[in-house]
Structures are given as structure tokens and as C-alpha cells.
Design brief:
- This protein is α/β, with parallel strands linked by helices and 234 residues long.
- The protein has two domains: 68 residues; 108 residues, Rossmann fold (3-Layer(aba) Sandwich), CATH 3.40.50.
- It is built from ten helices and eleven strands.
- Strands 3-8-7-4-5-6 form a six-stranded mixed β-sheet. A five-stranded parallel β-sheet has the order 2-1-9-10-11, with helices on both faces.
- Helix 2 runs parallel beside helix 10 and helix 8 runs parallel beside helix 9.
- The protein is elongated.
- It starts with 7 loop residues before the first helix and ends in a 5-residue tail after the last helix.
- The N terminus is likely disordered.
């Protein structure tokens, strides 16, 4: 009679592939990770809530969108934007904007700072449509008076009440500075390495004491999954 083989090597292999998704929704990032041979584990750390705020002006000449969430959370966006010049960050935001009926003039490949460089300074008013607390570069532009602000959603940081923190994680994916701060508060600097969606999130993660193992080549979820899959594992 043959001796049953230990399940320990198989268990170790599974644990080496467990990657945490911290976005509010597991998909589509979970599926992108699984397609690359990883095991997606979900703990939402950022929850988006529409603010219901009205737009700051009637007819913008230029609109800046840095996330698909900004598109989804802005009621009547197409009618309000009209023929405004629309600048977006990343392919996912571009797809959402076009699906909403907007004509995208330029797609910035990096952060909000890259998108700001694409704006035409001769056009006014220019309105940022997005988070109530945007990334630092956009916040600085708002403070300098170069942009108007339509805060269409707010972020609530932290896991659902009573949700356990998953154990035996190989990596953690972070798609926003808010998620980086929330994860750091949960585990401190001793947690597993993190993979982040862009330079702004990387800066927030490092400032919070996290170990950044990789930064996605593009600010989209497919690139985030690719960055996680490209790291060596035991």
C-alpha cells in the first residue's frame, strides 16, 4: 500500500499565491489575479459614497476626471459637460467617460499630475470631477485656484465592522492612497509587501511605513494584477 503524500507542500504553494484585494468590489481585479494563477482574497478597505453635491458652475470649458468612480458618481455628467474638453487619467477612466457619452480629448498615462499637464490653460472654467479629498497634485491645483471642484463622492476608510484580517497573505494590492492608509492602520509596517496602482499610492504607502514591492506600469487594474503576478514567490 502506498503512503499518502503530505498535503503540506500543496498548502504552502496556495499560501504563496494568496493576494489581498482591498477595493470595495472584488471584481474585476480578483478575476485578473486568478487568471494569472494567483488566489484572490477580499477585504474592502475603502468605501465610496456619493455626496449629492451640485456642480460648481453651469457650463465648464474643460473637465478633469481621474477615476471611473468620478464618472459613475456624477449625475447628469454628459448633459452638464456638454462640449467641454475632457481630460482623463488611465484607460479605465477613458472607457467609463466614453460609455457615459463624453468625448475624451486626452488620456494621461500616470497620475493626476500627468493629467494636469494636459490641461489647456486658456480654457476656463476647468472643473475637477471626483473625490471630495483628491490626490495631492489635484489638491494643490485646487488650492492655487486653477481648478473648480465638483466633489461627487467621498471615501470612507477602513474594513467593515467585525471583518477579520486575512492571514497568510503573500501580497496586498492597493489601488488608492486611502487604501494604503487604511491597511497601514490595520497591520503596521510588519505586514506583507504591497503592490500599488501608481506613484501617488506608492508615496502614500511608503509614508505609512509599508513595503512597496512593485508599482503597476499603468494606472489600471489589469496592470496592477500584472505587477503582482510578476513578483517572485516561494
Amino acid at each position: 500500500m502506498s503512503t499518502p503524500r503530505s498535503s503540506a507542500p500543496r498548502l504552502e504553494a496556495v499560501l504563496a499565491h494568496r493576494v489581498l484585494v482591498t477595493r470595495e468590489e472584488l471584481e474585476p481585479l480578483g478575476a485578473a489575479l486568478e487568471a494569472r494563477g494567483l488566489v484572490a482574497v477580499h477585504l474592502p478597505l475603502v468605501h465610496l459614497r456619493p455626496t449629492g453635491a451640485p456642480p460648481p458652475c453651469r457650463a465648464p470649458a474643460q473637465v478633469l476626471l481621474t477615476s471611473a468612480a468620478g464618472v459613475a458618481s456624477a449625475p447628469g455628467l454628459r448633459e452638464w459637460a456638454g462640449g467641454a474638453r475632457v481630460i482623463v487619467v488611465g484607460d479605465a477612466t477613458a472607457r467609463a467617460a466614453r460609455a457615459a457619452g463624453l468625448v475624451v480629448a486626452a488620456v494621461a498615462s500616470g497620475s493626476g499630475a500627468d493629467a494636469l499637464a494636459q490641461l489647456d490653460p486658456s480654457l476656463a472654467p476647468t472643473v475637477f470631477v471626483g473625490a471630495a479629498e483628491p490626490a495631492p497634485a489635484v489638491t494643490a491645483a485646487l488650492a492655487a485656484g486653477g481648478l473648480l471642484h465638483w466633489p461627487v463622492y467621498a471615501r470612507q476608510e477602513g474594513p467593515p465592522p467585525g471583518a477579520p484580517v486575512p492571514a497568510d497573505l503573500a501580497l496586498v494590492t492597493l489601488a488608492s492612497p486611502s487604501a494604503a492608509r487604511a491597511w497601514a492602520r490595520l497591520v503596521g509596517p510588519s505586514g506583507p509587501p504591497v503592490v500599488v496602482i501608481g506613484a501617488t499610492t506608492a508615496a502614500a504607502a511608503r509614508e505609512a511605513g509599508l513595503v512597496v514591492a512593485a508599482v503597476a506600469a499603468r494606472p489600471d487594474l489589469d496592470a496592477l494584477a500584472e505587477a503582482a503576478a510578476g513578483l517572485p514567490r516561494p
